[in-house]
Automatic annotation (TrEMBL):
Residues 389-454 form the TRAM domain. Gene3D superfamilies: Methylthiotransferase, N-terminal domain (3.40.50.12160), Nucleic acid-binding proteins (2.40.50.140), tm_1862 like domain (3.80.30.20). GO terms for molecular function: 4 iron, 4 sulfur cluster binding; aspartic acid methylthiotransferase activity; metal ion binding; protein methylthiotransferase activity. It is found in: Cytoplasm. This is Ribosomal protein uS12 methylthiotransferase RimO. SUPFAM superfamilies: Radical SAM enzymes. It catalyses: L-aspartate(89)-[ribosomal protein uS12]-hydrogen + (sulfur carrier)-SH + AH2 + 2 S-adenosyl-L-methionine = 3-methylsulfanyl-L-aspartate(89)-[ribosomal protein uS12]-hydrogen + (sulfur carrier)-H + 5'-deoxyadenosine + L-methionine + A + S-adenosyl-L-homocysteine + 2 H(+). Catalyzes the methylthiolation of an aspartic acid residue of ribosomal protein uS12. Residues 26-136 form the MTTase N-terminal domain.
Length: 454
């Protein structure tokens, strides 16, 4: 059993690739870097390749070529992606690059001129064309059939459900709109149909993701099609009717978000909101080109908790943003004291090539960024520890993620996979298996994790 670090960066996630192939079958390896949205892209690429008769290799050496799905959100993530490409070239030699960093092909080929092809994010057809050129398909019509369900890079009991691509915001520190374009929402009936298939295949938890979940359907003018309206409130209600846990990620605090809270109070949707607040001082938010309404945000949080006392609020913040003064940072600490968020992540500001924030004056020294990050995380940790201590003695439902000889690693409704905490069961766990949802009594709490017994 392993404890999740609370500051785990989603752009450093890795996909686990299943190994299943027949003799002589053309084989593709894959490493998927980046956020869950990139993981969904990887799943779609692998599903298409499987349908064309390719096998999927869990390692480089056993593959005829390797796809590296890259992250380009931060300069450190770009460096990580270049390292992964170099590792794949060394181990295999035949590498196709896709993903967010693929939007900068010269940057990639400048470092690794021997890559076979470079494609941008969600360019599925171009990736397939590159694979066909490097490793021609050789399907066996008696063996290779379209899989009954999509290739999944997550455990069978939970799945990410991407509802849109792109973003209409123009935050100065972010280049996502440049890489992935403006908001493009999927039709609601297509999202619901995919969710129905996932639940029918045994998925117990649907993790709704996008770049801006609150804005879902804006580009479609919230049109209704085949009985489903393209609006986040309607979509959440539709998904909540399927019987699985439904968890909402990347929700901007627009006023209409309050309409989701009754669905959480009713139990249709998990009482969990992942909201990227980023900062609290109005001047900092203005320099970020984000809505500067921290005081109103506190009012919204109070209203959400009044309507749904069990709600869990997760957010991420940036410290050391250009021009951030000690006074502005202290405002953020004071705001966090008042907001009492349950789950908090924090990044030290980094320049990103192409981001407008790079040109702002008064960049903060690295040692000051580190000091502020340490102070922020110390306060966030204290809040987390106190909130978890209050759960000792209570009963709650948890979903089992993993079982080994030491015990079961589970998550409560307040915990998303990879980024939040865990609940560990170290006695009476022998009959449990991944995907089980069981009731436990909490008997111990730490800074970020809980321990309990069935």
């Amino acid at each position: 059993m392993s404890q999740n670090p609370p500051q785990l960066r989603p752009d450093l996630a890795r996909a686990a690739i299943p190994d299943a192939r027949r003799d002589g079958q053309p084989t593709i390896g894959m490493v998927s870097l980046g956020c869950p949205k990139a993981l969904v892209d990887s799943e779609r690429i692998l599903t298409r390749l499987r349908a064309e008769g390719y096998a999927i290799s869990p390692d480089y050496s056993g593959a005829d070529a390797v796809i590296v799905n890259t992250c380009g959100f931060l300069d450190s993530a770009k460096a990580e992606s270049l390292d992964a490409i170099g590792e794949a070239l060394t181990a295999n030699g035949r590498v196709i690059v896709t993903g967010c960093l693929g939007a900068e092909p010269d940057y990639i080929t400048g470092a690794h001129p021997k890559v076979l092809a470079v494609t941008g994010p969600h360019q599925y057809e171009q990736v397939l064309d590159a694979v066909h050129g490097a490793v021609p398909p050789a399907p066996d019509p008696f063996v290779d059939l379209l899989p009954a369900s999509s290739v999944s890079l997550t455990p069978r009991h939970y799945s990410y459900l991407k509802i849109s691509e792109g973003c209409n915001h123009h935050c100065k520190f972010c280049i996502i709109p440049d890489m992935r374009g403006r908001l493009v929402s999927r039709p609601a009936h297509a999202v619901v149909r995919e969710a129905e298939k996932l639940v029918a295949a045994g998925v117990k938890e649907l993790l709704v993701i996008s770049q801006d979940t609150s804005a879902y359907g804006v580009d479609l003018k919230h049109a209704e099609d085949r009985g489903h309206r393209a609006h986040i409130t309607d979509l959440a209600r539709d998904l909540g009717s399927l019987g699985a846990w439904v968890r909402l990620h990347y929700v901007y605090p627009y006023p209409h978000v309050r309409n989701l809270i009754p669905l959480m109070a009713e139990g249709l949707v998990l009482p969990y909101l992942d909201i990227p607040f980023q900062h609290a001082h109005p001047d900092t938010l203005k320099r970020m080109a984000r809505p500067a309404a921290a005081a109103k945000t506190l009012d919204e949080i109070a209203a959400w908790r009044a309507d749904c006392p069990d709600i869990t609020l997760r957010s991420t913040f940036i410290v050391g943003y250009p021009g951030e003064t000690e006074e502005e940072f202290q405002t953020l600490l004071d705001w966090l004291d008042e907001a009492q968020l349950d789950r908090v992540g924090c990044f030290q500001y980094e320049n990103v090539a192409g981001a407008r924030a790079n040109d702002l004056p008064d960049h903060v020294p690295e040692e000051v960024k580190q000091d502020r990050w340490d102070r922020f995380m110390e306060k966030a940790q204290a809040i987390s520890e106190a909130k978890l201590a209050a759960k000792v003695g209570t009963r709650m439902d948890v979903i089992v993620d993993e079982v080994d000889e030491d015990g079961a690693t589970c998550r409560t409704k307040a915990d998303a996979p990879e980024i939040d905490g865990n609940l560990f069961i170290d006695e009476g766990f022998e009959a449990l298996k991944p995907g089980d949802i069981v009731s436990v009594t909490v008997d111990e709490a730490g800074e970020y994790d809980l321990w309990g017994r069935p």
